[in-house]
Amino acid sequence: MKSSCKQIDITDVNTILPWVGECIDRHKRRRDFEELLLTVGGMTKEDYRKAVNGDLSLLEEPKRRIAKEATKRIKNRDLKLSPVVIQYRQDKSSLKWRQIGRESAMQQIFDYIAIRSCEDIWNRRIVPQQASSIRNRGQVYGTAMISSWVQRDNRAAEYAKEHGYRYSRKCKEHVKLDVKQCYPSLRTEMFMRRFRRDCKNKDIL
To answer: Are 46 and 53 in contact (CB under 8 A)?
Structure first.
């Protein structure tokens, strides 16, 4: 498979500005993003209040300032990010203890830049059936997707039986599992080795 992301320039403000804007639009009411908009974005508290109450035009210049700061850090290979704060919370439904990482607002800005700049890889490598880690594709989406496979298989089997055709069922087995401590057990160096294979963009890497 061809390498990806060669043409993406994440040191260009205009390239990353829509992704920075997407992150800010989604989280602008949070306290850490308020602080980011007031400091790096250069907003006044009065303008910030107007922006969260509907005057979104006031966010345009602060978004550009934050995007400029991000590109500057990328060029200098100096992200200067606050450490991720780790918290443990118990899942109300499964009663499992989960390790939750709380990132700074600027860290989340860089997350959006990293994820969106790799869209070429995701489109080539991740099939549409993925039902986690994607917005609006949670458990209900996954259940409906599996149900549609089974129903389609049942209809094909009934049609074959009715018309005297041979049919080998596609939905023969299933397995339900959960990988214990999945994310904490992932090794960064192993991920990066595979990622370098797909991504040929030094700035993104």
So the answer is: no
**Are 75 and 11 within 8 A, CB to CB?**
yes
State both tokens at 98.
């989960």
Give the separation between CA 5 and CA 33, rounded to whole angstroms: 29
Distance CA 2, CA 37 (A): 39
Do the bridges between strand 85-90 and strand 97-102 make them parallel or antiparallel, or are there none, so unpaired? antiparallel
DSSP-derived 3-state class of residue 198: helix
What percent of the residues of the chain are helix, what percent strand, and what percent coil, each to the nearest 5?
A: 55, 5, 40
- Bridge partners for 86 per DSSP: 101
Q: What are phi and psi of 108, to 5 degrees?
A: -70, -30
pTM: 0.77
The predicted structure's pLDDT at residue 65: 98
For the segment 63-114, what is each residue's pLDDT rounded down to a tens digit?
999 999 999 999 999 988 999 999 898 988 878 888 888 999 999 999 999 9
Contact predicate 6/201, CB 8 Å: yes
| Residue pair 205/4 in contact by the 8 Å Cβ criterion | no
Tokens of 14: 């205009």
> What is the biggest distance separating any 2 CA atoms in the chain, rounded to whole angstroms?
75
Rg (CA), the chain: 22
